[in-house]
UniProtKB/TrEMBL annotation:
It comes from the Bacteria. This is Predicted oxidoreductase. It comes from Micromonospora chaiyaphumensis. CDD domains: AKR_AKR11C1 (cd19086). SUPFAM superfamilies: NAD(P)-linked oxidoreductase (SSF51430). InterPro entries: AKR2_Oxidoreductase, NAD(P)_OxRdtase_dom_sf, NADP_OxRdtase_dom. Residues 18-324 form the NADP-dependent oxidoreductase domain.
Length: 352
């Protein structure tokens, strides 16, 4: 059954059930010599991809001021020129950067920086409001996050921001923030068939928040194009694979994650979907609050992802088969836990 829109938490904003992640269209930027982008990008193709997404019913576009050190917001703004009212723009703040050198320079969680950052994002995006403004500092202590609520509420009152949220994988922090932040509408967090997030989804349900699901395709692993022999270029963040990036190691797909992809491929594609479309359908079946935001930088990628909207959530029996395959994989990992040649990342034992 097709799926078209979902509520953006308690904001009153409706968004397409599928968003477009805009990290990759930011192009290159780095922290010192370590790349933080996805390599070279064709800005004209990025603009075509955004506009094609709009044509196909995708309305939510998620970016951050730091993507490409400001370049990502500029490209998104150019793509939406003349069509701004068709889109819901989500961006983030918290990391500092130098636009001229395209270098990450640190972070700033002060209310003063927040006020400067939103004005800069509005200018780069070429718009008069941001629909969802998200704190990008995932591990910020709760008292420091709560200290930003007053400034965020002022931005809402001034009409510069419609709703706000936090990009974090810490369910306890998201819950504490949502309890006191009346304008909070969403939490952005990792969620995919490869890595479930039951605690965060429970927080979203309890506090009426949207689950903006980042990494729904495992940074490309769930597109099916990677093999154990695949090598990512050195100018791609996946090619250097910092410690926080679990899907790749030494410039190659991590074998334990490729095994997990292989285990669920048959169930995800059983009804004729592509692997990526099945992975998106799993997320919609997993939670009625989840809005996956797969990254894309070409028209072809957008078209494949958007076609999943017509397919909708996985059918109950198909979802159950995916769960059976994952349970079998967990059991095999437990049996082989004493074999160091086959490391296995933890898998949540149950899904509520």
């Amino acid at each position: 059954m097709a799926v078209s829109t979902r509520p953006l938490g308690r904001s009153g904003i409706a968004v397409s059930a599928l968003g477009m992640g805009c990290w990759a269209i930011g192009g290159p930027w780095a922290e010192g010599s370590r790349p933080l982008g996805w390599g070279a990008v064709d800005d004209d193709e990025s603009i075509r991809a955004v506009r094609r997404a709009l044509d196909l019913g995708v309305t939510l576009f998620d970016t951050a001021d730091t993507y490409g050190a400001g370049h990502g917001e500029r490209i998104l703004g150019r793509a939406l020129a003349g069509r701004r009212d068709e889109a819901v723009i989500a961006t983030k703040w918290g990391y500092t950067f130098d636009e001229r050198t395209r270098q990450a320079t640190g972070e700033d969680a002060s209310p003063e920086y927040l006020r400067r950052a939103v004005v800069d994002s509005l200018r780069r995006l070429g718009t008069d409001r941001i629909d969802l403004y998200q704190l990008h500092l995932a591990d910020l202590p709760v008292p420091r996050a709560e200290a930003l609520i007053g400034a965020l509420e002022d931005l809402v009152a001034d009409g510069l921001v419609r709703a706000y949220g936090w990009s974090t994988d810490r369910a306890d922090r998201a819950a504490a923030f949502a309890q006191v932040a009346r304008g909070a509408a969403a939490v952005q967090h990792g969620l995919s068939v490869l890595r479930d997030a039951p605690a965060m989804l429970a927080v979203c349900e309890k506090h009426d928040l949207a689950s903006v699901a980042r990494g729904p395709l495992g940074m490309g692993l769930l597109t099916g194009k990677y093999t154990p022999e695949s090598t990512l270029p050195r100018d791609d963040v996946r090619g250097t694979a910092p410690n926080w990036l679990e899907w790749f190691r030494s410039g190659r797909p991590a074998p334990e994650w490729l095994r997990r992809v292989a285990a669920v491929r048959g169930a995800l594609t059983a009804d004729g979907r592509t692997l990526a479309q099945g992975a998106l359908g799993w997320i919609w079946a997993r939670s009625g609050r989840a809005v996956p935001i797969p990254g894309a930088r070409t028209v072809a990628q957008v078209e494949e992802n958007a076609a999943a909207l017509d397919r909708g959530p996985l059918a109950p029996d198909q979802f159950a088969e995916v769960e059976r395959q994952l349970a079998a994989l967990r059991a095999a990992a437990l049996r082989d836990a004493d074999r160091p040649h086959w490391p296995m990342p933890p898998v949540p034992a149950a899904r509520p």
